[in-house]
Amino acid sequence: MPHVDTPQSVCRLGLARCDITPPVGIYHRMWGAATHERAAGVHRPLTATALVFQAHEGPPGPATEQVLIVVDLCLLWAPEMDALLAAVSGKTGIPVEQLLVTFSHTHAAGMMDRQRGHLPGGELIAPYLDRLADQVANIVQQARRSVQSVTIVYGTGRCSLAAHRDFWDEDNRQYVCGFNPQGKADDTVLAARITDAAGKTVATVVNYACHPTTLAWENTLISPDYPGAMCEVVEQATGAPCIFLQGASGDLGPREGFVGDPAVADRNGRQLGYTALAALEALPPPGRRFEYTGPVISGATLGTWSHAALDASQRKRKGHWRVRRWTVDLPYRPDLPKIEQTQAERTRWLAEEQAASRAGDALKARDCWAMVERMDRRLTRLGSLPRGATFLLPIVLLQIGDAFWLAVEAEHYQVLQLNLRERFAGVPIVVATLANGSRPSYLPTADAYGKGIYQETIAVLAPGCLEQLIDAISQQLAAWLSAT
């Protein structure tokens, strides 16, 4: 019988959510160009959502369970990330290897770095992070208690919110991080609807690649940026929580961004939300496929189609479960800066900032302070890197039925998802980056190196590492698909 299959997954899933909005007054100077220190208010609340995935059969354990925790923060540095994972594992009894924390990557949530406790509002960071660990552990336990049989149905849409952001400034003869009208940008929106045994929508997932950098240095409000309004649009229509997963957005950002107006972030979010809703509305009912049912004689001879239930064997295949957690050995770049060199550069920029301030040159002082901030972040990155010549990049790949869920640490250029989805056309691949942090920072394409592009200048891994990673993931996907 001619038919159209829609990719689906059958598993057990539990979900819980909580509010993790930081207190007003907390240290908020995420941007080097910012002149404020403390958050002046809240644009929209920040949330954390726990998703507990379990195989349809068998007791929960490392081979049959994966916990995904999605938080509305930019990211956590390695010490804070390790502490959060250890605390949640200790409070829940779930091994760290089963925990994945991903970030919406909003740049308007603040810099949650315990080393900034001496700065204005910094005294609120440590208590916030301690409370965050308790909150995340609680929702993981709630989600685990609420596990039920679900069907996940996948579809795609197209949204032009994301734009390429490696732009050559001809007048100043340099690359800047902004809107590149000639650059190509992945516009894929992967949307998933999760329904219970009665067919009720219990959650939706929107996977899209675009830096949440609508709001920048002029913004003084705590905000989830565009994912906030996106989730609101979808939740109002579906009556269920919407979870945003940040894709490979290393070279992607909003067409209109770097502003201080929250209304622009909301507009960007609604654009993505409406696209996600269109993709969700196009999905068939769970546990069904679209079949040709034959001709009907009318004014014309019509060909009719209808949704037919999957048989037992077809539905069983939708519950096929596999998970693999492994690392790929990637070399550090040969010109990786040294800590001593970075400390010297920081001292120089700090002296220039102080001199500019004394001279009343506010613009130069701001620019110099931005360079001090760059050096501080470089020192944090360098201090958290494992010793040796290579970095073991963690990968988690989960197959549930027709779909694959991929989680990788760090920020990757869009080619990661473009290449994988091109190689395995027709197979839903949910790509979640910044999984458990971003120790290596960016993974640009090999041809981006040596041009002075921001993402390349702060990358710690050598040219070609992204391509090597794509090949390693592709090999695993090919092996699993060939064995299905």
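Next protein, fold it too.
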Amino acid sequence: MPNVNLGGPTLGQIGVLVICGTGTDVRAYRTDVTQVAGSPLASPPRLALAQNIPNPFNPATEIGFNLPEPAVVTLEVFDAQGKRVQALITEEARAAGPHRVRWDGRDERGAPAASGAYFYRLAANREVETRKMLLVK
């Protein structure tokens, strides 16, 4: 069977839609469709917060995120105890699409942050994502 995708639906050769189940329960349905666009099986676009690069880092790192639609964004860095270290973006309107923000490893007073684990949290349009990063000196 061509183009079998064990992770979910895929379009095979000659317009055959292959839907894989669990174990040996695999079903194939023939269709004239040659392209799946706006498929109800596709998830709606979501806020996406990327892992910082580099990680671990010293002295600075970049944090990437993608907005599926324009949004008011807040991006903050917290220490392991949950105390805010730095606000990188504070309720700022951003366009849909990819964005990158640099953190220089300093707190809000401009003092260098200590080595250790930090968390960065992105909030946009009632969605929140958090990731962990490591500052090593």
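About the second fold: The first strand starts at residue 10 and ends at 11.
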